[in-house]
């Protein structure tokens, strides 16, 4: 398999090359404009991402992928960093070829975006690329106010106030919640894995990643791993899972236990990341499992 690197701010992982619609032009371009794409999507457009099975996931600038097929100007890839039962090699899907570039070198020293969003200045192209929370790029050197990093387009500059050296972490449950709280009010986007919008499992995946834990990409897979916790012994930062048929059917949702009978989660299309009292909601009847990944 041939390796590539994502060369746009955010790339959608499409179900097939025919999935993008006319209104998806900003997110399949290079440069991609995730902000313009999200803001121009109607409620119906957003529902179709899920109901018509258009999008599988998203990838941040600099993410490594492996080609498994090619169809003219589209590349089918797997994403090793997003574990899934769908493929042992990583999450599968399609990306426009022009959103991919040659792989970046594997280095121990990487700069990671810790702000919700920031800008990357490309020195050679003299262009700005918006970056999401948790984007990682190889470190080159320091400047007084910024880090110089390596990109698919040559050296780039990221502000030190918005980024730091990536380090091994083992966040507590409360720390995972703190990472998530900064996104309260952010739109739910099906397949979302960036600070322009998360889906339910994309939100839990990325907040765990911020805390040093790599967990499966989807809610159904997240429910199968981690440490099983009795429903009445959940602690803040644990994951709550919900299934159809009053908790007996297929797992369809995940959120963080927030304490005091509350949940921090990305609800569904048309809603925003919120803290919700579980009592009296459908979630109270659908709660089926609690898992803990933090230590």
TrEMBL record:
The keyword Hydrolase is annotated on this UniProt entry: yes
Keyword Hydrolase: yes
GO biological process, any: proteolysis
Pfam families attached to this UniProt entry: NLPC_P60, SH3_YKFC_2nd
Domain NlpC/P60: 170-295
Swiss-Prot/TrEMBL keywords: Hydrolase, Protease, Thiol protease
GO molecular function, one term: cysteine-type peptidase activity
Protein origin, superkingdom: Bacteria
Protein family: Belongs to the peptidase C40 family.
Protein name: NlpC/P60 family protein
Species of provenance: Terribacillus aidingensis
